Amino acid sequence: MRIAFFVNSIELETASYTTTSLALAALSRGHEICYVTPADFILRPDDRLMIRARSLNGTKPKKPETFISALKADDAKMSVVDVSEIDVLFLRNDPSEDAEGRPWAANVGANFGRLASERGAIVVNDPSGLSLAQNKLYFQDFPQAVRPTTLISKNIEEIRAFIDDHRGGVILKPLQGSGGKNVFKIKSSDEANLNQIFEAVSEVGYLIAQSYLPEATAGDIRLFLMNGRPLVRGDVYAAFRRVPAKGEVRSNIHASGTAEAAAITPAILAIAEKLRPKLIDDGMFLVGLDIVGDKVLEINVFTPGGLPHIQALHKIDFAEEIVIALENKLAIREAYGGTLSNRALATL
């Protein structure tokens, strides 16, 4: 099986990324892997879709650091490949990373991913589903029972009124974004710096105001779902608690959060079950849920990360289960002679 991983850039890939874990798991199972970035698609006049693929130059490293070094090396292999020769295109880019500096690149994965699926590649997560999830408005389509009370607006007076209605505090963040960037906790609409915060966040688009959940002081739980269901091996779930640094409202690892083991309760599994129907309908193969108490703060469908943290905590490499699931999708496609849609295959 040949798997192409679509990422924002080769330069920004690191040994700690979940994509690295997935690539190493694929190599260990005897598969070919390559990397593709937003500038690497070519649609030729004869309607063939080609990709400029970067792959390792004959090496099969086992350690993440060695793998990343080989991927970034000057002698890494570059080749132009017809997408019909790719079995799986795994979309692992973060559109928000490109939204400001390279807006042309933000939707490349979903757009060219759809063309790739039409030419025979299995594309996960399903590109048509991902096109619905270009920002956090996607979250509002899920059951209200699992969402914090939320306002989306660019009007400062609407936001002030929302803050006044939620005396326990409000979280302000951009509609488009990830990694905990520009996330603020507001205690009162009288805060002196509210206008500055509003200007900073609204500069890039709409704002989300969410009621603050007191349980968030202990961090949130990142739970992986695969094919619409919690990813689990034995009695260990692919999950961990992200604990914020002292005095920090964000629990993101990129924002100095730390990873700890998480207890997955029946209540958390019930939350995941409430989300399952839409995730399956949208072809979301691999998803990361960020859960606080009985609410989901975010649904990460583009680049859910954290598998290396889970492996460090539990000595379990869940990347192997994910690659096996891709192998199964390829077998199902062949058994059905290509008659199943990509969206159906994505969550089978």
UniProtKB/TrEMBL annotation:
It holds the Pfam family GSH-S_N. GO terms for cellular component: cytoplasm. Transmembrane segments: none annotated. Keywords: ATP-binding, Glutathione biosynthesis, Ligase, Magnesium, Manganese, Metal-binding, Nucleotide-binding. Its cofactor is Mn(2+); Mg(2+). It is an enzyme of class 6 (ligase). PROSITE patterns: ATP_GRASP. It catalyses: gamma-L-glutamyl-L-cysteine + glycine + ATP = glutathione + ADP + phosphate + H(+). Residues 136-327 form the ATP-grasp domain. Its EC number is 6.3.2.3. GO terms for molecular function: ATP binding; glutathione synthase activity; metal ion binding. Pathway: Sulfur metabolism; glutathione biosynthesis; glutathione from L-cysteine and L-glutamate: step 2/2. NCBIfam families: PRK12458.1. Belongs to the prokaryotic GSH synthase family. PANTHER family: GLUTATHIONE SYNTHETASE, RIBOSOMAL PROTEIN S6 MODIFICATION PROTEIN. This is Glutathione synthetase. It comes from Ensifer oleiphilus. The lineage of its organism: Bacteria, Pseudomonadati, Pseudomonadota, Alphaproteobacteria, Hyphomicrobiales. The gene is gshB.
